[in-house]
Amino acid sequence: MSTVHSHIDEGIREFILQQKMFFVGSAPLDGEGHVNISPKGLDSFRILGDHKVAYLDLTGSGAETAAHIAENGRIVIMFCAFDGKPDIVRLHGKATHHTLGTQSFDALRPHFGELHSARSIFEIDVTRVADSCGYAVPLYEYQGQRDTLIRYAENKGVEGMRDYRKLKNTTSIDGLPSVGKFIDEVGS
């Protein structure tokens, strides 16, 4: 049974901070467009207040979330316990996309560790906080974070990552403008 909370309280905060990964969900307005769900890790999530969170978006092969947020702002973040008490927490809200090279990105950047593959920060005004049971979520043993993306970004360097984003992150799979376009506009 799901419980809706008025804000990110201490229990929800503690649960979130214990999780090693989270999932981001977004969708375009077009009913024929593709819904997107992305797994995230590498200590890239921060709680900024009772109704505000942010995550550092790392360069990947697609940029669906950026395209969806630019179009409509809707987002959901989900945390699942893969060990311990079987809980799930969902944070629904409206996101703002802060692109690498902008003042708003630079203002939020100190909340996160140094990751060379960063391309943006999503700041979310949380409008709904809900938890539910995770009785059907399987148990997994945490072994550690993968460093593949970190090594890849370090090997490509700043220019190489910029070129990669321009090549792979300019539009969504539905043709919506995405993070590569926005980064190109600010010159980073």
Report on this model:
The chain has 188 residues and is an alpha+beta fold. The chain has one domain: Electron Transport, Fmn-binding Protein, Chain A (Pnp Oxidase, Chain A). It has helices at residues 10-18, 64-72, 103-108, 148-168, 179-186; strands at 3-5, 22-26, 36-40, 45-49, 52-58, 74-80, 87-99, 118-133. β6 (74-80) and β7 form a beta hairpin. The longest helix is centred in the last third of the chain and has 21 residues, at 148-168. 28% of the residues are buried.
Distance linking N and C termini: 46 Å
Query: How much helix, percentage-wise, in residues?
Result: 25-40%
Assigned CATH superfamily: Electron Transport, Fmn-binding Protein, Chain A
By DSSP (H or I, 4+ residues per run), the number of helices equals 5
Largest sheet, in brief, is:
8 strands, antiparallel
The proportion of strand residues reads: 25-35%
- The radius of gyration is 16 Å
What is the typical, i.e. mean, pLDDT?
93
Number of E-state strands: 8
